[in-house]
């Protein structure tokens, strides 16, 4: 029994040191990529798209009060992002895949961007996560004005409907109505034309359905 315990301890220690070593290697080769917008760049992100490596950092530089930043599509297991103030925002890339983002105010004028994070071999451990169930998360921020992000998990490909309703059950907005592969998603609702009050958002995906409350406070 003692010999078995020693073997288990040695294996655990080996795994821990391996993780520490791989983390050090990843950090040592990490790069910070700068994306600028506004000012002389106008309603564009520069660069508009780029390839990065897992472990790198993306740093946006500009006026977020004039150009609020929101992720619109992220890979499975990735963390959505949203920034509405300040002049610098950094995002650490820990999941491989393609990320899409936008300026909430000027997306209709084409102010969007993307970056693709590539695998180096070390980060495969971090990309093995798949949602194991449907989940509808609380919107953020809440209360909000005028934009908020709604995130949800889809464990397998299915048709997804995400809609907003007022207090008397009238549909006021459709955020998503499409077939989606398994993954974690974040969708933005811009309620600039809506009145302050309580609303509900409902996710329907296959047989799954869930509703949560959000508050628009102007």
Which descriptors would you attach to this protein?
2 domains, globular, mainly beta, four-stranded mixed sheet, five-stranded mixed sheet, 218 residues
Protein architecture, described:
The chain has one helix spanning about 1-30, and strands at about 30-35, 45, 50-55, 55-60, 70-75, 80-85, 90, 95-105, 110-120, 135, 145-155, 160-165, 170-180, 185-190, 195-205, 210-215. The chain is mostly beta strands and about 220 residues long. The chain folds into two domains: about 30-130, Sandwich (Immunoglobulin-like); about 130-218, Macroglobulin (MG2) domain (Immunoglobulin-like, Sandwich). The strands form four sheets. The protein has a five-stranded mixed β-sheet with strand order 3-9-8-5-6, with no helix packed on it. β15 (about 195-205) and β16 form a beta hairpin. The termini are far apart. Mean pLDDT is about 85; it is low at about 10-30 and about 120-130.
Helix content: 10-25%
Per the CATH scheme, the topology name of the largest domain is Immunoglobulin-like
Q: Classify the secondary structure makeup into a structural class.
A: mainly beta
The top level CATH class name of the largest domain: Mainly Beta
Tell me the number of structural domains: 2
CATH superfamily of the largest domain: Cupredoxins -  blue copper proteins
Compute the CA-based radius of gyration.
Answer: 20 Å
Please state the oligomeric state of the protein chains shown. single chain
Q: Tell me about the largest β-sheet.
A: 5 strands, mixed
């Amino acid at each position: 029994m003692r010999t078995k315990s020693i073997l288990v301890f040695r294996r655990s220690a080996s795994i821990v040191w391996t993780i520490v070593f791989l983390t050090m290697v990843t950090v040592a080769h990490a790069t910070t990529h700068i994306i600028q917008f506004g000012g002389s760049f106008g309603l564009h992100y520069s660069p508009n798209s780029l390839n990065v490596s897992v472990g790198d950092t993306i740093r946006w530089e500009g006026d977020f009060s004039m150009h609020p930043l929101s992720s619109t599509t992220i890979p499975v297991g990735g963390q959505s992002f949203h920034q509405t103030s300040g002049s610098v925002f950094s995002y650490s890339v820990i999941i491989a895949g393609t990320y899409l983002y936008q300026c909430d105010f000027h997306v209709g004028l084409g102010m969007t961007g993307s970056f693709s994070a590539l695998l180096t071999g070390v980060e495969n451990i971090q990309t093995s996560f798949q949602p194991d169930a449907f989940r509808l998360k609380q919107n953020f921020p809440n209360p909000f004005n005028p934009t908020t992000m709604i995130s949800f998990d889809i464990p397998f490909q299915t048709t997804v409907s995400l809609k907003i309703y007022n207090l008397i059950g009238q549909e006021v907005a459709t955020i998503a109505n499409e077939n989606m592969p398994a993954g974690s998603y974040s969708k933005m609702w811009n309620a600039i034309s809506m009145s302050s009050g309580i609303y509900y958002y409902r996710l329907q995906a296959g047989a799954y359905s869930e509703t949560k409350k959000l508050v628009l406070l102007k």
